[in-house]
C-alpha cells in the first residue's frame, strides 16, 4: 500500500433548505411514498430555488470545508468543480465560484464532467496536480442543481434526484500517514444512452421543437443502469483493494455513490459485506450526482463514523458511464 502524499485537510457540505418529500411528489404525479421507498430508499430530497445556482451551493460548501481545514481562501491555488449542471454551458462555473469566494486570479479553475463519478475523478485530478508540486492547496467541490435538468412530469426519473453540494480541501500529507492511498477510474463509453440528456449539446443544439419535446431533460434506462452500476461498483471495489494488498476487513467504512438503496444493497451482497459497513443517506437527499460522495464523507466525519486512522473506500458510478474507486486514510 502506497504512503499517501496528499490528504484531505477539511470537508464541508451545503444542502438547499427546501425539502421535497415523496408525499408532495405523490400529490403531483402518479406515484406513492411506498413505491419510491421500496424501489429506491429515497424519502425526501433537497431542491434549490431560482436564487441558488450550482455555483452558490458550491461556495457555501467550500466555505464550510475551508473553515473545517482552518485554511484561508487566499491559500487555495487550484479549484476543481465536479458538476453536470453548471450555471452556464460556458464558461466553467468554477470561475464563478472563484470570484464569489474572492480567490486570487492566480488560482487555476475548471469544471470536471464525470457525472456521479465526478468527485472521485476530481480527487485523482486535483491530488495529482498538488502532488506535481505546481499547486499547494486545492478545493475540490461537487455541486449539482439536478432539479433543472429533471422532467418533473416523468415519474421514472424525477423521484430519484436532488440538489446539493460538498467540498474538500486537499494539501500535502504530514507524518500522520493520513491521505489518499489510491484511485482507480474507468468508463463504459459504449453505454452512453443508459443515462443522458439527449439534446442541447453540439450534436443537437437546442431548438423550439427539442425544448417542447423535453429533450433537455435526463433520460434513463433504469433496469440496465441498475445492473451495470452494481457490476462496475463491485468490480472497482475489488480491484482497488487487491491492487493495494487490502481486504474488506481493512476498511472502516465504504462510502458508495448514493443513487439508490437497492444498488447499495446489491453491491454489499456482491462484496459479501453487511450493509452496516456502508454509509447511506440517500433516504434524505436522493441522488445528488457529483455531490453525493462528498456530502456522505462530510456527514460520516461529523457523525463520528470516520475516525482518525480509518481507511475509507469510496465507490462511484455515473452517466458516461463512468466509474471509480478511491482509498483514503484519515
Ligand atoms: N411511481 C410509481 N410507479 C412507477 C414509478 C414511480 N415513480 N416509476 C416507474 N413506475 C412504474 C413503471 O412505469 C412500471 O410500470 P409498468 O410495469 O406498468 O410498466 C413499474 O413501475 C415498474 O417499473 P420498473 O422499471 O420495472 O421498476 P424497477 O423495479 O426496475 O425500479 C428503478 C425502477 C427504481 C428506476 C430501478 O430500475 C433503478 O433503481 N434503476 C437504477 C436507476 C438509478 O439509480 N439511476 C440513478 C442514476 S445512476 C447513477 O447515479 C449511478
Automatic annotation (TrEMBL):
Enzyme Commission number(s): 2.3.1.180
UniProt-listed GO biological process terms: fatty acid biosynthetic process; secondary metabolite biosynthetic process
Active site: 116, 257, 287
Main location: cytoplasm
InterPro entries xrefs: ACP_syn_III_C (IPR013747), ACP_syn_III_N (IPR013751), FabH (IPR004655), Thiolase-like (IPR016039)
Pathway as given in its UniProt record: Lipid metabolism; fatty acid biosynthesis
GO molecular function terms noted in the UniProt entry: 3-oxoacyl-[acyl-carrier-protein] synthase activity; beta-ketoacyl-acyl-carrier-protein synthase III activity
Sequence segments annotated as region (ACP-binding): 258-262
Beta-ketoacyl-[acyl-carrier-protein] synthase III C-terminal domain ranges (all copies): 241-330
Any one cellular-component term (Gene Ontology): cytoplasm
CDD domains assigned: KAS_III (cd00830)
Keywords attached to this entry: Acyltransferase, Cytoplasm, Fatty acid biosynthesis, Fatty acid metabolism, Lipid biosynthesis, Lipid metabolism, Multifunctional enzyme, Transferase
Domain of life: Bacteria
Catalytic reaction(s) noted: malonyl-[ACP] + acetyl-CoA + H(+) = 3-oxobutanoyl-[ACP] + CO2 + CoA
Compartments (UniProt record): Cytoplasm
Domain Beta-ketoacyl-[acyl-carrier-protein] synthase III N-terminal: 110-189
SUPFAM superfamilies: Thiolase-like (SSF53901)
Database matches in HAMAP family: FabH
Family from the record: Belongs to the thiolase-like superfamily. FabH family.
Comment field on protein domains: The last Arg residue of the ACP-binding site is essential for the weak association between ACP/AcpP and FabH.
PANTHER family recorded: 3-OXOACYL-[ACYL-CARRIER-PROTEIN] SYNTHASE 3, BETA-KETOACYL-[ACYL-CARRIER-PROTEIN] SYNTHASE III
Role summary: Catalyzes the condensation reaction of fatty acid synthesis by the addition to an acyl acceptor of two carbons from malonyl-ACP. Catalyzes the first condensation reaction which initiates fatty acid synthesis and may therefore play a role in governing the total rate of fatty acid production. Possesses both acetoacetyl-ACP synthase and acetyl transacylase activities. Its substrate specificity determines the biosynthesis of branched-chain and/or straight-chain of fatty acids.
Subunit structure: Homodimer.
Protein name: Beta-ketoacyl-[acyl-carrier-protein] synthase III
Organism name: Cephaloticoccus primus
Amino acid at each position: 500500500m502506497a504512503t499517501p502524499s496528499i490528504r484531505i485537510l477539511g470537508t464541508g457540505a451545503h444542502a438547499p433548505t427546501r425539502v421535497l418529500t415523496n408525499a408532495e411528489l405523490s400529490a403531483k404525479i402518479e406515484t406513492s411514498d411506498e413505491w419510491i421507498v421500496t424501489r429506491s430508499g429515497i424519502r425526501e430530497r433537497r431542491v434549490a430555488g431560482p436564487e441558488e445556482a450550482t455555483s452558490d451551493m458550491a461556495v457555501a460548501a467550500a466555505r464550510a470545508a475551508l473553515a473545517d481545514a482552518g485554511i484561508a481562501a487566499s491559500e487555495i491555488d487550484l479549484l476543481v468543480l465536479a458538476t453536470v449542471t453548471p450555471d452556464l454551458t460556458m464558461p466553467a462555473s468554477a470561475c464563478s465560484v472563484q470570484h464569489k469566494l474572492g480567490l486570487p486570479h492566480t488560482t487555476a479553475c475548471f469544471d470536471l464532467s464525470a457525472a456521479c463519478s465526478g468527485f472521485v475523478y476530481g480527487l485523482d485530478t486535483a491530488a495529482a496536480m498538488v502532488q506535481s508540486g505546481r499547486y499547494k492547496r486545492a478545493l475540490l467541490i461537487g455541486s449539482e442543481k439536478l432539479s433543472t435538468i429533471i422532467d418533473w412530469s416523468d415519474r421514472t426519473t424525477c423521484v430519484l434526484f436532488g440538489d446539493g453540494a460538498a467540498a474538500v480541501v486537499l494539501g500535502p500529507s504530514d507524518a500522520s500517514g493520513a491521505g489518499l492511498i489510491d484511485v482507480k477510474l474507468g468508463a463504459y463509453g459504449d453505454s452512453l444512452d443508459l443515462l443522458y440528456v439527449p439534446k442541447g449539446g453540439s450534436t443537437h443544439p437546442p431548438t423550439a421543437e427539442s425544448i417542447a419535446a423535453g429533450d433537455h431533460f435526463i433520460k434513463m434506462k433504469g433496469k440496465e443502469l441498475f445492473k451495470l452500476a452494481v457490476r462496475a461498483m463491485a468490480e472497482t471495489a475489488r480491484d482497488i483493494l487487491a491492487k493495494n494488498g487490502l481486504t474488506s476487513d481493512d476498511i472502516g467504512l465504504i462510502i458508495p455513490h448514493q443513487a439508490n438503496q437497492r444498488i447499495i444493497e446489491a453491491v454489499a451482497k456482491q462484496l459479501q459485506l453487511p450493509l452496516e459497513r456502508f454509509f447511506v443517506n440517500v433516504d434524505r437527499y436522493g441522488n445528488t450526482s457529483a455531490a453525493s460522495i462528498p456530502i456522505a464523507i462530510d456527514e460520516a466525519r461529523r457523525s463520528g463514523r470516520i475516525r482518525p486512522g480509518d481507511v475509507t473506500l469510496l465507490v462511484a458510478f455515473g452517466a458516461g458511464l463512468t466509474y471509480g474507486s478511491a482509498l483514503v486514510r484519515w
